[in-house]
Amino acid sequence: MSADVVAAEEIRPAPLWRDRRFRTFWVGDTVSQFGDRISELAIPFIAVTMLAATPGQVGVLTAAIWTPNLLAVLIGAWVDQRPVKRRLMIAADVLRAVTLLSIPVAYAAGVLTLAQLVVAGLLTGIGQVLFGMAYQTFYVSLVPSESYVDANSKLSMSRGVSFIAGPAAAGGLIQALTAPVAVVADALSFLVSAVLVSRIKAQEPPPAPAGPSTWRLAVDGMKVVFVQPILRASLGCTATVNFFTFIANALMILFASRELGLSAGAIGLAFGVGATGSVVGAAITPRISRVLGVGRTAIVGAAVFPLPLAFAALASGSDLQKTALLAGLEFVSGVGVMLMDINLNAVLTRATPEGARGRRAGAYSAINYGIRPVGALVGGFAGAAIGLRPCLVIAGIGGALCALWLLASPVRNLRTVEDAAAA
């Protein structure tokens, strides 16, 4: 064996499943994802079935959860200057756990209102943004760049599995214990995540030396995103698909419950069975990426992900037929979102300059996730004005057009993640 081969073997990173720190983080993220699936069904169900919310009010509730992302550009710049990001992740988990626990407490006391759900949505959204910004830097201290696709695939696979078991479990818990009590499971999942993250010892990159103000760093984050062609195109793609899919997301529980007449258990079953597409997508993405290249795979996924929403408007027939159709469409959408997300996330991580990850993530999220509450509000009020089915058609077709951003950019030529650094 030559010296070069020996050297290559010595520097090759260990498989991620053998890395105790990554395994711990993976478990914590998986537990939290399962809890999220319960709240995603339970909280809108509380609004729709217990508080008689209108489509517009459901849109406001969905928007509240994502509105804090508008501050992500400032939060990301502030996070970049903090020496230990892990502590911020723990604080974010605790904030979300306490906030969610307030919902069953208020329900038990007979004082639960739609206003409290909106406030809870805002606070959990703040926790989500804080965790996400700190995660960007913490992640690169755990995973070498050559393992980004592998790591994203594993994390996304867990997310996909959570979409299988989570909604079905949520539907069962809601029918057996009521929706407010089911939210307790999500609160506990955040506490588990906080404990596991606290046990991970990672050598985090030091923050940049004190210099520009948080506002200046936030502006710099915007420049990083808009000047770099790959980041700019990726943002255009994901912001477009987020706007249109959240038109549908704000209405889907309402559509399935009131217009299709499905029970919580049937809705959870449809979403759970359909979510097997996310697991399949996460499993096959690395192989497809090697064949097509990371750029083209992301483009295919960007078109496939939202398009099934348009076909959901055709749901009719018996409860079994409607449940089966929703499940099938969720399956196709799940495959698409993994093809897009896994590759774009890896490309974004590699294309971001060192020392600017937090503010890049903040600037990116402020627009990418900040557009979600806009889409939710448009969906809520458009659903009341023109009906739920036309809104789903608009969401599916409009969302699929997001792939044009990537087709018109250097992303289409990226074969590997390392090509993003060269570009």
UniProtKB/TrEMBL annotation:
MF (Gene Ontology): transmembrane transporter activity
Localization in the cell: Cell membrane
Topology within the bilayer: Multi-pass membrane protein
Alphabetical list of Gene3D superfamilies matching this protein: MFS general substrate transporter like domains (1.20.1250.20)
UniProt keyword Transmembrane present: yes
Pfam families: MFS_3 (PF05977)
Keywords, in A-Z order: Cell membrane, Membrane, Transmembrane, Transmembrane helix, Transport
Transmembrane segments: 58-79, 100-123, 173-197, 233-256, 262-285, 297-318, 324-348, 369-386, 392-408
UniProt GO cellular component terms: plasma membrane
Domain Major facilitator superfamily (MFS) profile residue range list: 229-423
The keyword Protein biosynthesis belongs to this UniProt entry's keyword annotation: no
Stated name of the protein: MFS transporter
Organism: Rhizocola hellebori
